[in-house]
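# nightly structure sweep
# worker-07 picked up a monomer target from the shared queue
# config: single-sequence mode, recycle default, output format = C-alpha cells
# input follows
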Amino acid sequence: MKSFFSSKISLAILVIVILLFGLRWYATSQNTESTQTIKLGVITGATGQYAFVGENYTKGVNLALEQWHKDHPDQTVTLTIEDDSFDPKKGLNAFRKLVNLDRVDALINMTSPTIDAMYEETRRINLPIAQGGEQGIEPADDNVFQLLPGNMVTEIALGKYVKEHGFKNVAVFVANNATFLRFLKGFEQGYGQPFKQFIINPDERDYRTFVAKTLAIHPDAVVFLVIPEQGANLVKLIREQSAEPLQYVFDANVQTGFPDYQRILRDTNALNGSIAINIRQANNPQFIEAYKKKYGQEPGIGASWSYDSFELLMRTYAKDPKTWINNMKNTSFESAGGKVEFDEVGVRKPDFFIGTIQNGVLPKQ
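# output follows
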C-alpha cells in the first residue's frame, strides 16, 4: 500500500514539474517573440537623380520608427539605411550587404533601378519588400509591394487624354531604362496612334540633337516620359531654339521631380498651359503635424511613402516570411499617405487627375 501511494506521489510531482517547465518555456518563448529585434533594411536614393526624394524618404522612415517605438515600447526595431545614388550597381551592392552582413528581415526600397537589379535575388530568398518606384518589369503576385500609387494606369490615361484632345503630330521623349520604356507602352496603349519617339540614355547630357529632330517635325504636342532633370533641360533647350511655344505633356514624374524643374528653369511659369498628371497626396494631418514637429518643415514628396512602407511591414509582421508576405497582400489600413491597399499584383491603387500647370504651379483640383 505504501509503495502504491509513493508511486502516485512521485507521478504527481513529475506531472507538476513537467507542467511548470512547460509554462516557463511558453512564457519565455512569448517574451522572446515580443522582445526580439526586427531588422529592417532601407535603400534610398539620397544622392544622384531624385536626391531630394531620397532625403524625404529617409526623414519619413525615421519618423515612422520613432513613433512605432513610442507606441510599442516592448518591441525593438532597427533600421540600416543605405544609398544607391539611383545606380543599379550600387543598389545591388547595398542589397547584398543588408542581406548577407546586416541580416535584415525585410527591406524598404525607394528606386526603380535597384528593385530591377535585385529582384530575382529577393525572390529566391522570399524577402518581404515595401517598394517605392515602379518596377521595370510587369508587377506580379510576389514579395514586392509598391507604395507609390501605380503609374501604368496613369500612363494609359494620359495617352487617351492626348488622343481625345486632338493631338495628332506627337513627339515623345522617353528615358532609356526598363521602367520608363514600360511607361511608354502604357502611353502607347492609351494613345493608339503613331507618334515619333526619342529615346534618351539616363546619363545623356547633350540634348541638342534630340531637340533639333523634334522641332523639325513641328509637333503639336511634346510628351515627357523622362527623369525630371532631363525633362527640365529639354524644356530649357526647346525654349531657346523655338520661336513658338510648344504644348508640353508630362506624366506623374513631373510631380515627383518638380524641384528639378524649379532649379533648372528658375521660373516654372515657362510650363504654364502644360498638361500634367497629378497623383493626389492624401497626407494625414497627424502625420503632417508630427513631421513638422520633428523636422520643422512640411513633408516633401516621398516622405509619406517611406512612412507607409514602415507601417506596412510592421503592421503585417510575422516571423515566417511567407506568412508575412501573405499578410501584406491582404492588409488595408489608413496611414500617412492615405489608404494602404494593393491590387492583385501588389501595386497601390492610384487616385489621380489630369490638369494644366498654371502660374508655375502643378495642377490642383
